[in-house]
Design a protein that fits this description.
Layout: H1 10-34, H2 37-44, H3 48-55, H4 57-64, H5 68-76, H6 78-101, H7 105-137, H8 142-165, H9 170-189, H10 210-214, H11 218-253, H12 263-286, H13 288-308, H14 312-315
Length: 316
């Protein structure tokens, strides 16, 4: 059993900040492309409906790999999975940018699907590392670590917007940014906690363990997990909608220049960063149920307000 550490070791502190920086890098890499989605839509001449099909690629790629990320993390270790996975994501996003440059939506979609698959691997690896750090600290840390993802994504979005304003070609921008992010993740992974040694369970029949005997039946598991899945989908909707459509909304409905439309993503992610910084304290103070109800109400009001706002300022 892990105990709370009042004065964590320097190794543990470095590992905590490395995990947080890994989250930031993982957010920064795709966000730089997301900030230029209005430009992508315009360059490819896509309708809103076809663009909607295109942007599901990232999520679709993550869904298609199912349990594979966990297998990869166990085989390669979380540090190598995070580093190699980030290199994979970077290469796939460069492929998507090349698809834009050559006017091929299918290449863009392929690049996004492959990047989404790699993102699932990195996500599992960095969360595994974050949980291990939390266990050593003996207190809640996940919200503050995920705040690193938000600030990293905000920085990546700002870089994408800046590159668009400066007229940097998308392919050049993504190739350079991918190289920076791969280097950053490699440095972070070197500071992860050492991999734990596997336990020898060869003499134990898993079906005879108390946990296995007490496990609920499959039908009962569905009743438990289905509401949780709906809450998770509701929570992630604001991130998915904002990431994929904020730039398009500002450029297409609010008369913001396509090169500047990435500011919507930056504002959204900066606000998300603030929420994640205070998230652990809010949960401790209000409890999980009240926090979910209040937060999802804010999501509905925010999305509705952004959709119906008459100008860019109120939308932001």
């Amino acid at each position: 059993m892990q105990t709370s550490q009042r004065h964590p070791s320097s190794l543990l502190r470095r590992s905590r900040w490395a995990a947080t920086a890994a989250f930031a890098t993982n957010g920064a890499l795709p966000a730089s492309l997301l900030a230029r989605y209005a430009e992508v839509k315009e360059s490819l001449g896509l309708s809103a409906a076809l663009f909607g099909v295109l942007v599901v690629g990232l999520g679709l790629g993550g869904a298609l790999v199912v349990h594979l990320p966990g297998v990869i993390s166990r085989r390669l270790g979380v540090a190598r999975s995070a580093g190699l996975g980030t290199a994979w994501i970077g290469g796939c996003l460069v492929l998507a940018a090349a698809g834009v440059a050559f006017g091929s939506p299918w290449v863009v979609l392929l690049g996004l699907i492959l990047a989404g698959a790699g993102d699932a691997v990195v996500d599992v690896a960095q969360n595994s590392q974050g949980i291990r750090v939390q266990e050593h600290y003996g207190r809640s840390l996940p919200n503050s670590m995920h705040a690193g993802w938000s600030i990293g994504a905000a920085v990546g979005g700002a870089v994408g917007t800046g590159a668009a304003l400066l007229g940097v070609p998308l392919l050049t921008h993504m190739a350079l940014w991918a190289a920076v992010c791969v280097l950053a993740m490699t440095l972070c992974a070197r500071r992860f906690l050492p991999e734990p040694q596997p336990l020898d369970n060869t003499e134990t029949d898993p079906s005879e363990t108390p946990q296995a005997r007490a496990a609920p039946r499959p039908g009962r598991m569905v009743l438990i997990l289905a509401p949780l899945a709906l809450v998770a989908l509701a929570g992630i909707s604001v991130e998915d909608i904002g990431n994929n459509w904020s730039a398009v909304l500002l450029a297409g409905e609010r008369d913001v220049a396509a090169a500047s439309a990435g500011v919507g993503l930056t504002v959204l992610l900066a606000a998300q960063f603030i929420g994640r910084m205070v998230g652990d304290r809010v949960i401790d103070a209000l409890g999980g149920r009240s926090t979910l109800l209040i937060s999802l109400t804010a999501v509905v009001l925010g999305l509705g307000g952004a959709a119906w706002a008459p100008n860019a300022a109120l939308t932001l």
